[in-house]
Write a structure and sequence with these properties.
4-stranded parallel β-sheet; Rossmann fold; homodimer; 10 strands; 6-stranded mixed β-sheet
Amino acid sequence: MALDLAAIRAAHDRIRSYIHRTPVLTSERLDNAAGGSLFFKCDNFQKVGAFKARGATNAVFALDEKTASRGVATHSSGNHAAALSRAAKLRGIPAHIVMPSNSAKVKVRAVEGYGGKIIFCEPNERAREETCSRVIGETGATLIHPFENENVMAGQGTIMVELLQDISDLDMVLCPVGGGGLLSGVAVAAKTLRPSIRVIATEPAGAADAAESFRGKKLVRLDHKNTIADGLRTNLGVPNFAVVRDYVDEIVVVSEESIIAAMRAIWETMKIVIEPSAAVVYAAILEKKVEPRGKRVGLILTGGNVDLDALPWTKN
Amino acid sequence: MALDLAAIRAAHDRIRSYIHRTPVLTSERLDNAAGGSLFFKCDNFQKVGAFKARGATNAVFALDEKTASRGVATHSSGNHAAALSRAAKLRGIPAHIVMPSNSAKVKVRAVEGYGGKIIFCEPNERAREETCSRVIGETGATLIHPFENENVMAGQGTIMVELLQDISDLDMVLCPVGGGGLLSGVAVAAKTLRPSIRVIATEPAGAADAAESFRGKKLVRLDHKNTIADGLRTNLGVPNFAVVRDYVDEIVVVSEESIIAAMRAIWETMKIVIEPSAAVVYAAILEKKVEPRGKRVGLILTGGNVDLDALPWTKN
């Protein structure tokens, strides 16, 4: 299977009844400030509070009956873990979630709430991968990687199909990039459905491996990431880089200060809760890294899962 | 003019092009917790971030040309002041806003941002009323009271017309009560359009003058109000009490603790920003002051203007 529009459309048919058709919101005030027309695709309202519900659901429901019956596994501790647990529960199969023993309680509870079986491991990458391999060996479960998986990528691409169904004449679309699962799907859907569209990825300056890889035309990995946008601390994946290289026009980086200002501006003006990782797209506009003037701009808001006890503008 | 459905429909025709048709949102998770179907009418997404845009716009556009040309005035410092400033600007007339000299800067900026002319006064009720009278005497402006005004009440009632247009078969509707401008309009619209509906007002226990007035069938005023729900610290108005007495089925009171828990639950689950005054309706469900089980329940979310630097769950 290749990641193409047909795969994304098949994903959409497969998952449609399990996910929300999320709204596209606009704000006259933010339009006036930008001098263009901004269309926010709100997957902060998606099931599990993030776009991850799309890819995980597609990956789970794409499995054949026999493979599915042995369950699925992953070693994410964030939104993908919750999304995979939910999708497995919907299909009536087990989800094995390997999480570091120091995971935040709120994340543990989210996974448990969706019925995921948690296996704790030491908080380092080797332990996570070894534990995950062991679980897969013991159970026969299928690994559903959070982004290096074409069914996941195709599922994430459904967000762009919906956005273009609602707003067909976009000049550009802004999309966050972490591992690149979302960006891959969005870029393929966008460029296939509307070849004239500019696809611009936005990344925190403190985790700018994708921007560096894109510029150097060679996949680089950074070991130390420093950003509040916790969903974007991941390094760009291998199959994802291949798609990004071919389908994305530009990757811009934004500062922590702009991410926080963008998050706050969207909460205050649009009255919606978005997480820091979702704020990077509007941060690019605040920083004038893209030029929205006179343009119709899509912005992918990826999620709304925030710890309300630790907001970035609150002094501790 | 009487406050009736015809007045509310006329208000709707008058203001429709100046306000948002706000969405009705639902949450599977909150439905499961409540055991009923909850329909949240989201005027936190309204212009100026609150339902107040409805009543103020109706009052301003209902004025005849000559009266309007002399401007409007009020002595609110909250959402009504912003809403009146915006409505006056839309009509091209001045809005004189009397505000106490110790008003929060964010409120001053909001009024200025919508073009209101601010007249500061000493921070006490006498100074506010004297200053307002003086301004009206000097300018010939029309006082637009935030709730003791039938055009304001009719404008606020449009929120219920929209809610019943979207969800026609509600069993009950929950509505906050402060001065009673919103509640008057909502109750008249609800009972006229759907006589079987139960209209339940919700009020903070720390500002329970409306509940006491309703119970004793006599309007009482409380001098000291103690609640985080700053929009509900006002005493119930005189014409408002007359409507409430005739059209409202019940007034329930909720604790500060429930208001904060309700606000937080809605932010976390629905990913929308609502102010404490809006949270009292869901607080009534959390406190089991109403029984939603098996029922279809409308909840009026009144606004989303919150100081993000002073959230109620943040320790200072």
